[in-house]
Amino acid sequence: MPVFARIATADPVEATAISTLDHLFEGKQKSGTNSYDVVVDIKHVSLNDSTLCGYLHIKGLTREYPELTTFFDAEIIGPQYSFLTRKWDATDITDEEHWALFQQFQGDLYNMEAHQEDLRDGDVVFMRWKEHFLVPDHRVEGITGASFAGFYYICYNKRTGDINGFQQLTLSHVEERKSFGSYEFR
Amino acid sequence: MTLTPHEVAVSQLATDQAVPLDRIKSLRFIKNNIIGNKTKKDLYIQLGIVSRLQDIISVKDDKDSQLKIQAVIVLGSFAFGNESNILALTNSGVVEPLLNCLNPSGDPKLIEAAARTLNAIYASPKASRHQLFMGNHLHVLVQLLDTFSSKHRPGQEIVQVHTAELVASILARCCETLEQQMQIADSGAIPLLMRLLASGISKSQEAALGALAALVKDNPELAQVIAQMRLEKGERPAPFILRLVRDKSPTMRLAAATCLTYLNRAGVIPEHDGDIMLIVLPILVKMLQLTGAVQEAAPQVLAHLIWESENMQKAVCDMEAIPKLASIISQMDEEDNVYGIVGQKDKLKENSLLALAAISQLKEDCRKQVIEAKVLSHIVSAMSHPAVGVRAAACQCTRSLSRSVKNLRTSLVDAGIENPLFQLLSDEDLGVLRSATATLCNIVLDVSPMKKTIMERGIVTKFVRMISYGDNVVRLNTVWAIKNLVFEAESEVKENVMRQFGYNNLVLLLNDSEPAVQEQALNLVRNLAHKREHDIEQVFKGLGNGQLLSIIEEKLSWDDPRLLEHALYVLVNIATGSEYHKQSILKRQGILRSVLRSMNHESAAIRVASIWVIINLTWPDDKVPHSVHECVTLLRNMGVEDRLLALNADHDLDVRDRVKTALHHFLMDQQQYGHNNGNGVPSDQTGSGNGRHGHSSSRYHDLQQQQQQQQDNSTSSSSSSGDAFGGGAGSSMDTTHIVTGGSGAGGHDRR
After folding, report:
1. A43: which chain B residues are within 8 Å (Cβ-Cβ)?
2. Of B54, B72, B93, which residue is a domain's last?
3. What is the structure's pLDDT at B657?
4. Which label site among A129, B371, B470, B694 has the fewest CB atoms less than 10 Å from its CB?
């Protein structure tokens, strides 16, 4: 999978508005016969730009790095991003095959009308996630046995709090005490 | 000892000389010596020429107008010198007699010369302007704009036009404060400037545009007045100026663009928004490739135009303005290094940095372009520039770029902004301090690798000093920074910060005269109380239970939705604490009533927050089930349950989701303890779902019908298990699950 970099935006008004959305998810990432514990921590959401970003923590991926954290950002399918990826070597057929893997996908790659307000009002949110660099040291370019060159097709079910992704990345919302801090860019 | 020719010339100007012709000869001699000659100018000033000239022009009669004219011209030559020359003039009090030379009954050539000299003096921002606004001077000045006046002598038209242009330029330079703007407007300048604008003479039009721009800058009232005026053929100024913005002269284009920018910012020409985007913006961007004064001013006008406007920032990005600005800045740095010249092009650098700051203010794409243009290292070094304006602009750049998680983690830390930023926190200039503290707010975030190191440098001690700095913006930024710093921080960090900062300072901020500061302080409390019971306990200890909740109760009574929201979330967070923490909320009727009231607030975010308070207070806890029951009963008796049931039909999805969770708690309680018979005695302890069905439960039956209906209609995959009435010990209460249950027949009793 080729590389693309799309960055999440900061918007001071929205940081508080979304502070009550679930932001921690845990689950498993399956690759072949292997399965790794995964925790996703969403750090910032920008409704205006239809993006969000956060960290992906993976355990046991390589011997050298038993615990790995990458920074990722996301394109939220909606008014700004269509189901058609049109980059990263993904063809329309690739897109069709992958979105169809989600039960909630209604089958029409070209109908964006139905998805204008997904994050705010919809039950299901579709996204593309792209990992970019390692946290804490972003200068590390590659790790033997691990690759963050691809992207994920993601389906987030707001009703159940579950996230599903391409390559059987299955995450469900973490039970946590409902306390909410808030930050804003200045 | 013999006198030098210069000394001779100066002495011959003395008023007791009988022959004016000799004095005129001396003046010519002096003039020829000083034009373009800095050394000679300084020399003559030292020889005391200014007071001699002042004496000449202060003579009351009109006989020797030639003499006066020459004297004024010589003064003008000094005024074209450097700033210390100008100050020598103003300090000796020469402005007042010059203003008197504008007397309309005098020689038009004298009036023109005086206007030219005054215009040159006012080019310096340090020259005092107050004499202009005293007595009759402003009125006299404004009348000179009127080139059609019947008072004018025939044959002097060209002189009069030049004079009008100079006067417009003077007004533009003396129009910095609101008062000055209003005084000039009140003196009748605007219609005359409009006439000048429509005169068809380029220089006059440019001068008029300069004055009009200065009048409408940051002045919505005058902007409205001017936008609504009509020119000679009935046309409004804006479309007229839009034609001038496409003139072949770059100075005209700049003057027109500047005027339109200020009108646009005042919001008085919305019908031309499209033109601004499609015509003015590209023209300003193209000016970046010119040279001289136009190139220097253009980026500042550009920055002003696009500030806070996402659309325009994106458009300017697409026009490739960033690479142009980057090359201006990097080239200047290279030249400085090669020639060792510092300070010559400071204004150009400052304005270019300001433009970059404006472009990258809101859009991540634009920030990315700035990073990719490889100009960041220049920005960082400019943060230590000797010129205040450059430092402040560079800091604004850093601030814009720092509003990005990605940049905080990568480019900014790599570029080493931490050191210079820390230095700027001790800068003497207020503008720099404001910028630096604003940037700090982003640097101290959880996601920023610089947070740890900046804390080690003692940033918290700096915070304490900056709180009492005495500027509202600096204070606001400081609280904001602390709020961001403790967000998601470890307990030790929170304790460390509060130990140095002091809870008494926090209380002062919670009662600050500025609501914006109060808001940040409340948010700070919210963040301190977030995450762990231990943290909540620390806040209780630091503020005192009584004081903390009294403050919250007070804030809950304010109309301000931002204060209200943060106050509610403080409660939400406290309610995740211990039994003692929860009880301290429940004991306060005033607080509970406010929460109940907030459930009906017009803002969905507030309604959600208030429901979260209820959710957390009624969270099932097997360790203290009776206490939870008491809480539910208390709230039910206050009418909370009724309110929740009503909110089940709220048009906001988030509200409805939270309502379901909250109602679930009430429902569970009712299942366990049965219909509330007033003293909270549980009628059925087994929780098997066989409680008596009274009035309340029929509501729930219908509620389940509603929810089942909604669920059937939704596109979500069906929610999994979860006995509606069970839950059991320590089960996960996922709040996005919909309560499922039997679907019987029966009417829908919609509330």
Report:
1. 405, 447
2. B93
3. 81
4. B470
Q: Residue B27: name the closest of B47, B2, B52, B63 by CA.
A: B52
Residue where a domain terminates, one of B75, B93, B111: B93
The DSSP string of B7-49 is HHHHHTTSTT-S-HHHHHHHHHHHHHHHTT-HHHHHHHHHTTH
- Chain B contacts of A9, Cβ < 8 Å? 362-364, 404
What are the C-alpha distances in Å from B226 to residues A105, B19, B212, B229, B237? Answer: 56, 52, 8, 5, 7
Asked if residue B30 lies in contact with residue B53, where contact means CB atoms within 8 angstroms, the answer is: no
pLDDT tens column, B326-368: 999 998 887 766 655 455 689 999 999 999 999 999 999 999 9
Q: Is residue B713's pLDDT more than 70? A: no
Please name the residue of chain A whose CA is at the shortest distance from the CA of residue B396.
A186
Total structural domains in chain B?
Answer: 2
Contacts of B722 (CB under 8 A, 6+ apart): B737, B740
Mean pLDDT value of segment B311-339: 88
Contact B389, B346 (CB under 8 A): yes
Read off the pLDDT of each residue in A110-136 and give the average, rounded to a whole number.
Answer: 78
Of B156-160, B186-190, B196-200, B302-306, where does mean pLDDT reach its minimum?
B156-160
* Nearest neighbour of A179 by CB, restricted to B484, B576, B732: B576
Tell me the CATH number at B568: 1.25.10.10
- Cβ atoms of B240 and B231 within 8 Å: the answer is yes
CA trace torsion B696, B697, B702, B705 (10° rounding): 140
Portion of chain A with pLDDT greater than 90, in percent: 4
Find, among A112, A92, A102, A80, the residue nearest to A155 by Cα.
A102
Which has the closest alpha carbon to B538: B526, B529, B546, B547?
B529
B580 vs B583: CA distance, rounded Å: 5
Range of the domain at B40: 1-93
Distance (Å, rounded) from C-alpha B86 to C-alpha B128?
A: 11
Q: Cα distance from B711 to chain A (closest Cα, Å)?
A: 10
The tokens of A80 are what? 């700004």
Q: Look at B403 and B701; give whichever has higher pLDDT.
A: B403
How many other CB atoms sit within 10 Å of the CB of residue B437?
29
Distance (Å, rounded) from C-alpha B112 to C-alpha B134? 21
Q: Which of B365, B487, B734 is the closest to A181 by Cβ? A: B487
- Split at pLDDT 50, 70, 90, the class of B61 is confident
Cβ–Cβ < 8 Å for A23, A109: no
Quote the mean pLDDT of chain B: 86
